[in-house]
Write a structure and sequence with these properties.
19 helices, 454 residues, alpha/beta, 7-stranded mixed sheet, disordered C terminus, elongated
Amino acid sequence: MEVADRAAAVAALRQRLARLGGGGAPTAPRPRVARELETVAERRAEGARQGGFEPQEAGGGIAWVRRVSVDLGPFLERAGAPGPVTAAQLLRLTLGDPGPHRPLWDASSAAVLDLETLGLRGSGVLAFLAGIGVPRGDRLEIDQVLLVDPGAERAALLAALARLAGRRVLVSYNGRSFDVPALRSRLVVNRLDPAALEAGMHCDVLVPVRRLFRDRLGACTLGRAERDLLGLERHGEVPGCEAPARYQAWLRGAGWGVLEGVVVHNQLDLCATMVLAARVAAHLEGRMVAPVHPADRYRLAVHLERSGVAESVEEHLRATVAGERGPWDRQAAHALAARLRRRGGAAEAEAVEILGRLWRGRPSDLRAARALAISLERLQRHAEALAVAEGSLELCSRLEGWRLSALRGAPAGGWVVDWERRCRRLRGRLAAQSPPPGLALAGGVAAPAPVLAN
């Protein structure tokens, strides 16, 4: 084939590919398609304005932002919180006991964050709505950044970052596991520095809610916490699981009504998180959530002790024991006895009484039996300690291996080895003491008949 023929064939092929849309230089969209795209974009902009969003310049692009101010007073009153969360309370929720340090800033230096995204994991976690709230007394000043054009994500991210910059505390509900990682990943994709997310402290309210109320709530979702801890109920609510489909429908040209409920849902999530932070902070200070669940005092005592707050721990443990509601009364009795044993002296004698009641009520509680035997031996009450050890060893001999291994608190080497060693030592000490005949067990700690646990 001549060179001219080859050139003609190539030109004809290019023309054919261009007509099919698969080759040649890119061509401009057909006028009808371009008009349709412009119509959809205009409809989105019109809907965003209808929802209160306005375009703002951000990093050379356009971000759509909506600002509202919400009075939290009625919500706080309904929840039984004495007022909005303070800076000191946020510090305590975040760090436990901050010691003598008190913040030199107020709560307006904090920001609450909540995202609505297109997915829960992977590349689909595109944040199409970012809500950022700043507390100002009883009010929450909220900025919501809507991704009207997915191609303008960088501008939307910059607008959100500008509202988070310089905040001393970032408040969220499950934000440590979801919102912050999702936002960080989008910043990295858009080549933006995620350092602003790392500044200051992060108060994830889910953490104290789980520690304090997991027995009451079960699944510690924000909705469940709202209903059971705040007494709030949303009516006509758009569930969060519908948010991705509604946003995608809106992008394709659906009316603003499809997305309006998602924006309201995001706003309510921000308000609920701040009210919940105030309610949990008040709970930590002794103004407990009513009605008081049987587990509330025990969980509060455990949380305070882990956080390094000594006051009220023993009071809450004693109240839980006195309530006689299982299983928390036994758990509280174990914790109270452990505190008393660490104190020693007369306090350890009281621990012996508590542990004795636990052991007599449930001889299969070998953890209580072991603590009781150790305390009795420290108090030089060797005969009583031996009675506990022999009774527990007898119980172990009657239990099948798998049941014995399932009992909590086993020492190194296992229960049987530990009880045998303890019995030998106590018998030796008693023999060395040469006690007079007819010695009675002081304190009433007598070995019960071994009983198999249900």
